[in-house]
Write a structure and sequence with these properties.
By secondary structure, the protein is an alpha/beta fold. It has 25 helices and eleven strands. It binds S-adenosylmethionine and iron/sulfur cluster.
């Protein structure tokens, strides 16, 4: 594609009327002055007030900005311990002891933007550019399936060659890949997308091919900072086009949407408030908040001075606090901790209420297929430097992480049933808020964990996983919700079928 054509494409992406329609009195939902005032007003919260706020959260009620601001300013270590414990309890009420796994798939590092923190930005001449063909997408997917994954999040730079049509073809290609497992065929059952903001018409294309969740991170909610790191002559320089990306997705019919902020760009307390206001505005305009919230921390990226020198880099201790406050503030929302973080920190943060994580992650373009090839150490190092967007903190394989979690009493769920049974958007939010979705998921988690143990697990993981499944099944038998109707009977049959090699059965 010629330079001019790229420029022409860029010019027609933003549709101003698809921003303006969501503004209220011409204003967006981030009022910086109001956020700063709320933060300042709540700098010294009373201990009893904090205890009351924790109680509200334990009743699975979303917090108000004043309450979140108060939590963000707690200094007493004992109160923090209470908040960490409450975070896990909220998670258990809504999502039980399950962790959902996914694998990211980076399809293209071509990008028309110039974000100061990202190795893919167009000015980074050290980056070798590559976009996967559909054959390569197929090969990458095969490698991911072979690890035992059932969910992917597919990531794209913003470029006419990776436009909505390319993304839609990628989704279709991934859904069509089947790979032999020990029993039957493995497959990806849910394809989520992390891509640039799009128009409603483009988002409908993704909806039509069965997108799972559409994820866009605002990066920073602070407008001045945003402008400084996203040049105004680039597409990403348009703050509001990005701020309303998820609103447009909802309008296009994609009701599982996911937000996030890139922590390290600006003050972490401000970003938590921004994320909360984002959730509130989605609730106000569509009746449901985000399906998940992510909190990637900025990691060193090739050629990015900002990624190592920012004044706002977040310490491990503050990171754990911000995840806890998000957990308590938006109790019904899934929280994603990624392999950007190292294994010990991931483990710690999972215990304050995260619900999803990745493993066996490769973030180089074509990284899964290349990992299978015999490469010299030097060749591999060069490739990683060339094509990785940033450096990963946790490179363990899926089986290792599943084992670690099973030892902690957490069951890995590969369940993708909610989305395929229409339990998405407002339906799933209602179920989550009433802690009912967790019950269906408990059954489906056991069924999919059984599949994993039989099809992919190492002997060690299988041994520990079996014990966990036994515990889960005896708990299930004790819960009246299951035993009252015919649910238990249905589950028992499905479990037997799964043991006998039947695949993809769900409630
Ligand atoms: N191009 C799309 C966009 O910007 O929305 C999607 C792909 S982009 C590679 C996905 C996310 O990577 C960004 O939203 C950003 O938060 C994150 N990211 C970029 N640079 C990073 C870094 N140095 N460390 C950690 N995360 C980073
Ligand atoms: Fe491109 Fe996204 Fe990286 Fe920005 S964050 S340079 S838009 S890939």
């Amino acid at each position: 594609m010629s330079e001019l054509t790229v420029k022409e494409w860029v010019k027609q992406v933003v549709k101003p009327d698809e921003i303006d329609k969501y503004l209220i009195d011409g204003k967006d939902f981030i009022n910086e002055q109001a956020i700063n005032t709320t933060l300042a007003k709540n700098q010294k919260p009373e201990k009893q007030r904090i205890r009351d706020i924790i109680q509200k959260s334990l009743c699975i009620e979303r917090l108000d900005p004043e309450e979140t601001a108060a939590l963000l300013h707690v200094e007493d270590p004992d109160l923090w311990e209470k908040m960490f414990a409450a975070g896990l309890e909220v998670k258990r009420k809504v999502y039980d002891n399950r962790i959902v796994f996914f694998a990211p798939l980076y399809c293209s590092n071509l990008c028309v933007n110039n974000c100061a923190y990202c190795g893919f930005r167009y000015e980074n001449k050290d980056e070798k550019r590559r976009i996967l063909t559909m054959d390569e997408v197929r090969q990458e997917t095969e490698a991911v399936i072979s690890e035992g994954h059932k969910r992917m999040i597919v990531v794209f730079g913003e470029h006419p060659r990776s436009d909505a049509d390319y993304i839609a073809r990628t989704i279709e290609t991934i859904y069509n890949v089947k790979m032999p497992a020990r029993n039957g065929m493995g497959e990806i059952r849910r394809v989520n997308i992390n891509a640039a903001p799009m128009s409603v018409a483009d988002l409908k294309k993704l909806w039509n091919v069965g997108i799972g969740t559409y994820q866009v991170f605002q990066e920073t909610y602070h407008k001045t900072k945003y402008a400084r790191i996203h040049p105004s002559n680039t597409l990403k320089g348009n703050y509001r086009w990005r701020l309303y990306a998820l609103h447009r997705a909802m309008e296009a019919g994609i009701d599982d949407v996911a937000t996030g902020a890139l922590f390290g760009l600006y003050d972490w307390r401000f970003e938590v408030m921004g994320l909360l206001h984002h959730a509130i505005d989605l609730e106000r305009q569509f009746g449901i908040g985000p399906h998940t919230i992510s909190f990637p921390r900025m990691t060193p990226a090739s050629g990015s001075a900002l990624s190592i020198s920012s004044n706002y880099l977040v310490s491990d201790a503050d990171f754990k606090k911000l995840v806890t406050v998000l957990r308590l503030s938006v109790p019904y929302t899934g929280l994603i901790i990624t392999a950007r973080e190292n294994a010990p920190l991931k483990k710690e943060v999972i215990q304050v209420g995260c619900t999803q994580t990745d493993a066996s992650t490769k973030i180089g373009i074509g990284g899964y297929t290349e990992a299978l090839k015999e490469l010299s150490h030097l060749e591999r190092q060069n490739q990683e430097i060339d094509k990785q967007q940033f450096i990963l903190g946790d490179t363990r394989r899926l089986d290792d992480v599943v084992l670690e979690l099973a030892e902690m009493g957490m069951i890995t769920s590969f369940c993708t049933a909610g989305y395929r049974c229409g339990r998405t958007g407002d339906k799933i939010m209602g179920l989550l808020k009433s802690c009912t979705e967790g019950k269906f998921c408990k059954l489906n988690a056991v069924l999919t964990f059984r599949e994993y143990l039989d099809d992919y697990a190492s002997p060690e993981t299988k041994a520990i996983g079996e014990k966990l499944i036994e515990q889960e099944i005896s708990q299930i038998r004790e819960i009246p919700f299951f035993s009252k109707g015919s649910l238990l009977e249905t589950f028992d049959k499905m479990y037997r079928d799964t043991l006998n090699g039947k695949r993809d059965v769900y409630i």
